[in-house]
């Protein structure tokens, strides 16, 4: 199997005339996994260790949002709008049933995809994320801006501050993660532009002010996972509230881990995901 860092980037134009850039990896499977990335993220921000591990047993399709990376258009102004566009992408591929893997903001978008079209979803994996209107989600802009300022001053990638704990172990894990996501040498995706980044932040702020989604009538199996010290989407109460929001869910909390706990504990997370999807 071609490793994720060498998988070519493809494009597709939807019937709505929207161009999406995406990468596809893995073995043939009846139900593919659609991966939805974090705030400001593009195709190169997925951890190759996690993607390659899941791809050993499943087919993954990872798109850029509109207005980001190689995708066309402008960034949607709401999380609901992002979900609608992702659904258009999914249907353009001719898919009738999918599994969802959402990380951070991607978890917000995944929830709205479930809310908008539950019959499309077989199973969902929601990581580093929380429910609509969850505690502290409106603070993402403030926390991101503070961390960006610190990152610029210290010449450090902002994800080292936002995604990992500041313990010695957390700092080591951050360095290893950043090395992995920068290992692709050719055909790298374009970084998000400043206007699209601010549009996404405003969408998150709005989403954090809205009422929670009622998932109580759905029986979709859901895996919720996070680190025990997420400063972006506080683990308590959000991960626990998300677990309780679904009637058929399970929760994994990783120790001494932050927002990107599932990437820090990549080996275990891959095992858990492959077991869950199977």
Automatic annotation (TrEMBL):
Q: Does the keyword Transmembrane apply?
A: no
Q: Cite the GO molecular-function annotations of the record.
A: hydrolase activity
Q: Which residues cross the membrane?
A: none
Residues annotated as coiled-coil are none
**Location of the AB hydrolase-1 domain:** 40-263
Which keywords are on file for this protein?
Hydrolase
Under the heading PANTHER family, the entry gives: MONOACYLGLYCEROL LIPASE, MONOACYLGLYCEROL LIPASE ABHD6
Quote the protein name from its UniProt record: Alpha/beta fold hydrolase
Annotated source species: Levilactobacillus fuyuanensis
